[in-house]
């Protein structure tokens, strides 16, 4: 390690002395093809230089005019870990918008800020971690179990929604310039990876092949085929007995041969050490490195590939195999234009002024507003009137900036808490009282608490409760978690529940409960305590403002749950069971607390006049279905129209219903619109027990609604869905 750092420092310093674009070598000639330039550059490197170029902190090579390059950067919901940036809602909140176009625009904004930061770093000759243009995002793992602490990073539990959101993010990040890749996105963590965090370095995921191809792989396949994602990150764990980063089936057969992936494959950081520390797949580091290369890996996020020369010396791998792996990796640097004259690249002119600019702030606000999910609104308590006489604001997160951000976040100088936003929203004559009232998880030490009296003396109580990043997240970041970031109990912390019970009993005033977090809060009693409940996730820098606007009616909530809220963990299979039986809205038969796709509005919607162009079709034909959606309430609003398809007579286990389409409609009070969906043969296919997609004859039910078709959705206030059937002969 010391030898590596010393050499890196020498090369890093020396790189400044050579002009990159003196065109001393053919690889520096932009008129040549990328393949020609890559081949020339690789041919000029020593074996050790090649190995070091395949680690995330690639050093410069002075004699070749090659500057250092850092492959590791983060941008899950904004440029992260590198100073000021626009902080958008955490991904599980973005998923609640059901709005791929919004996510694409966010990707465009993030990539603009990424280039601004990159250009600044280049001028400062800063080539350190988090300064490059290749990002380890998006996380498109399926949030199959709500206990997983990193589920907040995902787009939820549904393969279709995850695919659409992931593609949109990639398209926004990578741009559409015909000559240059804007930034490089990375689909992670390939492929069956969603907790528990405590065993993520060692467990072996062995789902049924049907579930593997039906649930775990579709998003990755979609991002490769439709999104043209530039990179894929293989996960820490084993899948079907092989380390994900050492599986030729996953990396070479499925990813490259079947799906046609052309980009580079990176390991998760230090994943290669797991080969010999946890998986028993290799004895020494050199063996592990050889296995990774032979399986299809191109980049080591870590320092393990410094053992590649030893692997060649021992005959474990050939230099030609290293050349092939390195060549695939270097293509990305050329596509980014980083080895061209600076003036050739249109993105090199993006300046610091885009970071946190008004356009991006407005976009962060739009995303936060659309992510808010209204779960309950007894007696139409919300929206509140701005002229209300008095409000008591309380809860551990009312004045918290931490709950705005989520993990893998940037930092912003534009963070507005819920408390601050409420104070700025109400009329000058409204009295706003605030006390935190309760700790996030520890019981109060002082038996005296003024909060209850102030609650009783106010017209309404607004409480911000739930969980934060100290309770859920990645293995080493959740400091209040004794389960390495997973939430094995999905209830609200007991001390918060006790406080709310007492507040309800003593105040006798209506309670608006704002819940934060990146996973379900499944305490059913909250619906009895609170009059109104909204779930706001980790809503980003503009989250406080968006929440206040929702409370007072300037925003009509339109978010929808991208994950099922079970009534308790007792409804869930074992956490480490990767079979989909009993999991997510597609296979869960028990009645949930709140179903997937659910969310209320301050207005009401009606679905009617559903029609189909053909009630009987042949295999391979497409069906068009239309329905009318009417805003029957008194307020303007947005409806998230969801299309679900069910194979009624399948030969094997199939989902109860599958999301296959989404459209957001803005409807004024009394307005109607007709929406149309096409049911393609792909939507009618089932995945059999061998993992093959098959088109079978039979009956299909199509449901169009504002929620998944769970019966409890209507009980909770969702509109009655419109359904129709057709037959395929």
Automatic annotation (TrEMBL):
**Which residue numbers delimit the Fibronectin type III-like domain?**
639-708
Signal: present as a keyword of the record? yes
Q: Which UniProt keywords apply?
A: Hydrolase, Signal
Question: Which GO annotations describe the biological process of this protein?
Answer: arabinan catabolic process; xylan catabolic process
Q: Give the Gene3D superfamilies listed for this entry.
A: Glycoside hydrolase family 3 C-terminal domain, Glycoside hydrolase, family 3, N-terminal domain, Immunoglobulins
Q: Which GO terms describe its molecular function?
A: alpha-L-arabinofuranosidase activity; beta-glucosidase activity; xylan 1,4-beta-xylosidase activity
InterPro entries registered for this protein in UniProt: BXL, Fn3-like, GH, Glyco_hydro_3_C, Glyco_hydro_3_C_sf, Glyco_hydro_3_N, Glyco_hydro_3_N_sf, Ig-like_fold
Q: Which Pfam families match?
A: Fn3-like, Glyco_hydro_3, Glyco_hydro_3_C
Q: Which residues form the signal peptide?
A: 1-22
Q: Which family does it belong to?
A: Belongs to the glycosyl hydrolase 3 family.
Name the record gives this protein? Beta-glucosidase
At the highest ranks, the source species' classification is: Bacteria, Pseudomonadati, Bacteroidota, Bacteroidia, Bacteroidales
